[in-house]
Structures are given as structure tokens and as C-alpha cells.
Specification:
354 residues, alpha+beta, six-stranded antiparallel beta sheet, 12 helices, elongated
Length: 354
């Protein structure tokens, strides 16, 4: 095996892992009373450039006076123990002169037959950075929760293997939409128990799609399996669902594969579920009216300045939806000049006054 193909040593792997996590690693040689630090540790300890080691007195001098005696005592007790893991916290000054909390996690090793002296090896973590990252995660989760609550979307997280679902998490909104949170019968209760605790069991995809309307089930099953089998990255479909209480609703599902097995099949899928019954019923009534009366429908979003035309409106203007997209202003040339000004004025007045 050539040198450029040699596997990384355990030390190199440690350095790679700690660098990726913003963590420093260090070794304290007890007999020598000297500690060696990597670049990250030296940065956290605010050491001068090119200084990667300190004698014990110099290291203790870096610590906050309130932490120094306690840490020395803790280290002394731990170094006489059975070699188990050890953790302590202390403060050092940063480049701005502020006291910064650090956490050292260590393991003590006694002297061995290879003439290695007693030593302590460990990692150093910036607790303030860790706290900031945790707070950022909490804020991001809160924003996501607020966004989902405002949008009315339910969330699901599914794990699959060999074409079967091995784990399925869904939030409260998902259960509200589908009716899974209602105790209707023994089979529903069993499914809810499995969702809460799969216990190594798996279920057929059809088990989770059993309430899809029969006319929509083949299309929706095909869309789901295309992602599960590795033929597509995303699923996106709308269809009818008969809730567990018997009520018919329209749903829209969007999902994406976030990880795959070695054979390319989906290992994990994240997605959302939305109840679009109100919109679907409105669209149905519009299509029925268009078919019967021959009129068209449009919707103008004042905030985004976007216009949506129904199929009937395209038919009225004899335009192809694939070739033309309505844009406010550019469509005004379609109207006869004598009536154009009156139409535009009426439209703008309606937008201003409601």
C-alpha cells in the first residue's frame, strides 16, 4: 500500500474530529509538570503566537483566582483514581480581557512499560460558543414551530428499509388533519401505538396510506414508492383522503429523501401534510361554473403583484397556459383602447379601497 493511501491514524482522526467541532485537544505530562496544546487550545487559552505548551505554574496562572485552587484539587483527586473520565470547568481571559468559561474533559493514564510517564489527555470546549450554538438551535426550532403553526402544516419523519416503513414520526398537526389523534377503533389504536414505539417492527407503505380515496390511491402510492425505491428525490401530490372518522378531505403532501441506503433506496424521508379542502372545494366550484357558464376566474395578489388565471380565463382570451403567464400591466394591451382607461381606473380603485 502506497503512503498516500495509508489509513489515518487514531491521532489524525482525533485531530480531524476535534477541528470539525471547534474543540481543542491537549496532553498534560504529570511527571514533567508540562502541558502540550493544539492550535485550538492555544487559541482558547489566549496564548501568545507559536506557544503550544506551558509549565504547570504558567498554566495555573491563566485561571481565574476563584477556579485555580478548586481545579488543582480536583485534578489531584482524579489523577489518583482508576483512570475514569474526568470533567471540570474554569475561566480564562480572552483577547478582549473578558473571563471566558471553558470545559476540560480528560482521561488519566498511569505510567506504562513503554516508558510513557503518567499523563492526562483530553479536550477543551468553549462553553460560551456552545451556549450560543445551542441558543441558535433553540431559536431556529422556535421559528420553525411558529412557521408550521401559522401555515397549518403537519410534519412527518419516516425511516424505510426494503420497501417497508420501519419508523414513522408525525406531529400533533399531522394527527389533527388525519384524525389519528382520535380513538375510533382497535386498529387505529394499534397504529398509533406503533407510531409512538415501533419496537423494531415495520409496516407496509399501504398501511399508512390506507385512508387515501380509492380513485387517488394508485397515483399517490406510485409517487411514494418512487422516492422510497430511489427513483426520485421528492414526492409532491394532492388527493382525497377519508379520515378515520369518515370525513372526506383534500390533502397535499410534499416530502424529500434526506438519506439513502447503500443500494440507493430511501433510508429517511421528511415531509409536510396540508389540509387543502377549502381551496380544493373552491377550485372545484370555479371549474364547474366555468364549464357551465363559459366564464373565467382570476386572482390578484396585491402584496406580490402576481395574477393567477383559471383555465376558463385562458379559454376566454384564447391563450395557451404553457406559453403565456399574465403580468399586471402587460395584459392591458388586450383591452380595446376606449374602455382600457375606465377598466384600469376601476381596478386600481378596487385595490385601494377594497
Amino acid at each position: 500500500m502506497s503512503n498516500d493511501r495509508q489509513p489515518l491514524s487514531r491521532l489524525e482522526l482525533l485531530e480531524l474530529a476535534t477541528a470539525g467541532g471547534g474543540v481543542g485537544h491537549w496532553t498534560w505530562w504529570l511527571d514533567e509538570g508540562f502541558s502540550h496544546f493544539d492550535e485550538r487550545c492555544a487559541q482558547l487559552l489566549n496564548l501568545p503566537p507559536e506557544v503550544f505548551g506551558l509549565a504547570d505554574p504558567d498554566f495555573w496562572a491563566l485561571l481565574h483566582p476563584e477556579d485555580r485552587a478548586l481545579m488543582q484539587q480536583d485534578f489531584a483527586v482524579a489523577s489518583q483514581g482508576d483512570g475514569s473520565a474526568y470533567k471540570t470547568r474554569y475561566r480564562v481571559r480572552d483577547a478582549a480581557g473578558r473571563w471566558r468559561w471553558l470545559e476540560a474533559r480528560a482521561h488519566f493514564f498511569p505510567a506504562d512499560k513503554h516508558q510513557h510517564g503518567a499523563r492526562c489527555a483530553g479536550i477543551l470546549i468553549d462553553l460560551e460558543q456552545q451556549d450560543r450554538e445551542e441558543e441558535l438551535i433553540r431559536e431556529q426550532r422556535l421559528r420553525l414551530d411558529l412557521a408550521l403553526s401559522a401555515s397549518g402544516l403537519g410534519v412527518f419523519d419516516a425511516s424505510t428499509k426494503d420497501g417497508r416503513v420501519t419508523r414513522f414520526f408525525c406531529d400533533e398537526r399531522y394527527q389533527d388533519i388525519t384524525g389519528l389523534n382520535e380513538s375510533i377503533g382497535e386498529d387505529i389504536d394499534k397504529l398509533r401505538a406503533w407510531i409512538a414505539e415501533p419496537s423494531g417492527r415495520s409496516v407496509e407503505v399501504s398501511t399508512l396510506l390506507r385512508w387515501i380515496h380509492p380513485d387517488d390511491a394508485p397515483r399517490i402510492m406510485a409517487s411514494s414508492l418512487s422516492v422510497i425505491n430511489g427513483d426520485a428525490e421528492r414526492m409532491r401530490f394532492e388527493g382525497r383522503m377519508v379520515r378515520v372518522d369518515g370525513r372526506l378531505i383534500w390533502i397535499r403532501v410534499e416530502g424529500v429523501c434526506v438519506s439513502r441506503h447503500a443500494d440507493g433506496s430511501a433510508a429517511r424521508i421528511l415531509g409536510t401534510l396540508e389540509d387543502i379542502s377549502e381551496r380544493a372545494e373552491r377550485d372545484l366550484m370555479i371549474r364547474m361554473g366555468e364549464d357551465i357558464a363559459g366564464f373565467g376566474f382570476y386572482e390578484y395578489d396585491i402584496g406580490s403583484n402576481m395574477i393567477h388565471w383559471s383555465p376558463g380565463t385562458y379559454a376566454v382570451f384564447k391563450l395557451d397556459p404553457e406559453k403565456y403567464s399574465p403580468v399586471l400591466g402587460t395584459q392591458r394591451h388586450m383591452y380595446d383602447a376606449p374602455s382600457r382607461d375606465a377598466l384600469v381606473s376601476a381596478f386600481e380603485l378596487a385595490c385601494q379601497t377594497g
